[in-house]
Amino acid sequence: MSQHTTSKQITNTELSAMKTRGEKIVSLTAYDASFAHILDTAGVEMVLVGDSLGMVIQGQTSTVPVTVEEMAYHSKIVSRGLQRALLVTDLPFMSYPDPQTAVNNAAIIMQQGYANMVKLEGGQKILDSVQHIVDQGIPVCGHLGLLPQSVNQIGGYRVQGKDEAQANIILEDAKCLEQAGASAIVVECIPASLAKQLTASVNIPIIGIGAGVHCDGQVLVNYDMLDITAGKRPKFSKNFMLEAGNVNDAVKAYVEAVKNSEFPAEVHSF
């Protein structure tokens, strides 16, 4: 077990306290109970049931085909492997087109998927949905930068926020999400300098994926960091299986690397 690990149940309040203390938050995706158990015992604070399961589990070319029912199913089985980590589950493509639909689907994820928090992609366009979900007592995690559900619109998986105008929108989106009641924000594929600025500009935890080392925490797709994913691995990921003898040791190495600000290195950043 990691030396940083306590047996205390992680809550969104604890994540906020970790940001205040300057203690890095470690997150990984999981899609089943066995992986969830490994992550939980290794000291991962936040387990994300990502709609990335569309690609790494189902073999789809994007996250778009994933349904609410599929997310609830995977969330439920992941929950059985957790004792300590906070369970965050994605609301998939087109499951939050308006506030009422968003609340209805968030309720499914919480009641049937046993999630502790739901994650939505987007900024100011989805604020009404975020606020409506939070008003019902459901914690929300935002997602800014590269938005995989919008990949058809943005024309592929590209770094976001490189120019000043785009960077300012992302910064403003983060502040708006915080004001709407979001408990945390995942930022994906943005320049490390922008992520540093963003992390300092809001009081809620910023969890980076391809966003440099200055975020409050890090998340990766577990299949990427274990070198299981078919095809090309993202530049921002690292194969932790290379130096580990087994999956447990690889996950523990990732936890330590994030806690000690050794991951992501410059080579994994933009």
Order of helices and strands: HEHEHHEHEHEHHEHEEHH
Question: Low-confidence parts, pLDDT < 50 over ≥5 residues?
Answer: 1-5
User: How are the strands of the biggest sheet laid out side by side?
Assistant: 1-2-3-4-5-6-7-8
Give Rg in angstroms: 17 Å
Tell me the span between the first and last alpha carbons.
32 Å
Write up this protein.
The structure is a single chain. With about 270 residues, the chain is an alpha/beta fold. The chain has a single domain, classed as Phosphoenolpyruvate-binding domains (TIM Barrel). It is built from eleven helices and eight strands. It has helices spanning about 10-20, 35-40, 55, 70-80, 100-110, 125-135, 150-155, 165-180, 190-200, 220-225, 245-260, and strands at about 25-30, 45-50, 85-90, 115-120, 140-145, 185-190, 205-210, 215-220. It has an eight-stranded parallel beta barrel, surrounded by eight helices. Helix 6 links the parallel strand 4 and strand 5 (about 140-145). Helix 8 runs parallel beside helix 9. The longest helix has 16 residues, at about 165-180. The chain is globular and about 45 Å long. The two termini are about 30 Å apart.
